[in-house]
Amino acid sequence: MNNLDRRTILTTGAIALAGAAASAPAAAQAGPKSMFPVPATTIPIVGETDVYQVRRIYCIGRNYAAHAREMGSDPTREPPFFFQKPTDAIQNVAVGSVADHPYPSLTKNYHYEVELVAALKSGGTNIPAEKALDHVYGYALGLDMTRRDLQRALGDEKKPWEIGKSFDRSAVLGPIHPAAKTGHFTKGAISLALNGTVKQNSNLQNMIWSVAEQIAKLSDAFELKAGDIIYSGTPENVGPVVKGDVLLCKLEGLPDMSIKIV
Ligand code: MN
After folding, report:
1. If you measure from the C-alpha of residue 35 to the centroid of ligand 1, how many angstroms do you get, rounded to a whole number?
2. 232, 206 in Cβ contact below 8 A?
3. On the chain, which terminus has fewer CB atoms closer than 10 Å, C or N?
4. Residue 226's beta-bridge partner residues?
5. Measured in angstroms, how far is the CA atom of residue 81 from the centroid of ligand 1?
6. How far apart are the CA of 59 and the centre of ligand 1, in A?
7. How far, in Å, from the CA of 83 to the mean position of ligand 1?
């Protein structure tokens, strides 16, 4: 192939690509449209006008030894376990605001769990822990809100605990901070105050399974993809809220996040 041929092919290819890009929106409009459109769940990204679209929400259970003990289990390094929340369970909380969070139905023992949340930009299966953080786009501060009475009752009956963990607005979340700016969170103080009194107070170093190890373990069970976020577990001293309570969550290196139970 001489240079002229190659240039011709490249030019033709470029035109074809440009044509495809230009016609893509028209093609999308021409295809079947949703009978009942469903909005995408997105999370704001600090410093970006674009947003982070959520694909799945994974959560790890009992990932701090002292919390495992308070939940009545043995905190030895048994394999981690995971559950999911529905994507639209996210309640976004802006930095500097105190977001109203409605007390949910059915429960009389509604608990806070402050957690570091990792947001993936890519994924795969069987990801080695040493490579896992390459898939993390950024981090946020989150609350895994829990109907503890229902979670416990369902667990005791060996039934799925969906109603205790995976209900509307149960995934409270601050904005995502790109790891390119903050670095990765492998240590640092994490705390939660209830009406000004510190209740949960630990360090990310006390996690039984690090974020990297969680990604590795999750990827053995699921194909992870961009848009997957992971609630990385809560430290000890979870507890109940009532209407009117204000929760203030802190993670060293990120802005605070706050909600009021209404
Ligand atoms: Mn949790």
Report:
1. 35
2. no
3. N
4. none
5. 11
6. 6
7. 9
Evaluate whether 93 touches 248 at the Cβ level (below 8 Å). no
Asked if 41 contacts 87 with a C-beta cutoff of 8 angstroms, the reply is: yes
- Superfamily for domain range 41-261: Fumarylacetoacetase-like, C-terminal domain (3.90.850.10)
- Residue 257 Cα to ligand 1 midpoint, Å, equals 16
Encoded tokens for 213: 């190890």
Residue 250 CA to ligand 1 centre (angstroms): 16
Q: How far, in Å, is the centroid of ligand 1 from the Cα of 160?
A: 16
Q: What is the pLDDT of residues 156-183, one digit of tens each?
A: 999 999 999 999 999 999 999 999 999 9
The alpha carbon of 39 and the centre of ligand 1 are apart by a number of angstroms equal to 26
Q: What average pLDDT does the segment 183-208 reach?
A: 97
Distance of alpha carbon 81 from alpha carbon 159, whole angstroms: 16
10: pLDDT strictly greater than 70: no
User: 89 CA distance to ligand 1 centroid (A)?
Assistant: 14
Predicted local confidence at residue 55, as pLDDT: 98
Q: To the nearest 10°, the Cα dihedral for 207, 213, 217, 219? A: 130
Q: Domain segments of the chain: what residues?
A: 1-31, 41-261
Residues 6+ apart with CB under 8 A from 70: 236, 237, 238
CA 134 to centroid of ligand 1, rounded, Å: 24
Q: How far is the CA of 151 from the centre of ligand 1 (A)?
A: 12
